[in-house]
Design brief:
This protein has 135 residues and is of the alpha+beta class. It is 28% helix and 23% strand. The chain contains four helices and five strands; from the N terminus they run H-H-E-E-H-E-E-E-H. A five-stranded antiparallel sheet has the order 1-2-3-4-5.
């Protein structure tokens, strides 16, 4: 966790040492801003480059080290999956879950409590497929 001075007058947002707070206005949030950046950037990376094994491995390594993220082994449609859940400290809002294939790390589903669900489909296509409109 972040370093907090023993004589702090109020509890600042949880930050890595040396990071300056970005929410200095009236709004006070219970969020680890560094982990929030990591979580959101990781979800963006998966949304853009889930087909890349290096991106999947990097994302899973990063979020797997976050204390705010829990990992549960389960099954979906008879296949082994991992469900990663990030709570308020990492998301800055409601719990978000990411379900990935336990063998390949391919994202399957992303859910925000009380909100949206994104179902992932990752496919490889060739230039000929795109030219023929098959994508």
């Amino acid at each position: 966790m972040a370093h907090l001075p023993a004589d702090a007058k109020e509890t600042p947002p949880v930050l890595a040492p040396g990071v300056k707070p970005s929410n200095t206005g009236e709004e006070k949030r219970n969020v680890n801003i560094t982990d929030n950046w990591v979580w959101n950037s990781s979800m963006d990376a998966l949304g853009l480059r889930a087909g890349s094994p290096a991106v999947r491995a990097g994302v899973l390594r990063l979020v797997g080290q976050m204390p705010e993220v829990t990992v549960e082994k389960t099954t979906l449609g008879g296949k082994p999956v991992l469900t990663l859940a990030a709570g308020e400290l990492a998301t800055g809002g409601p719990t978000q879950t990411l379900t990935v294939d336990a063998e390949t790390g391919l994202p399957i589903k992303y859910v925000v409590d009380g909100g949206k669900t994104i179902n992932y489909t990752v496919a490889r296509v060739t230039v000929a497929d795109v030219a023929a409109g098959k994508f």
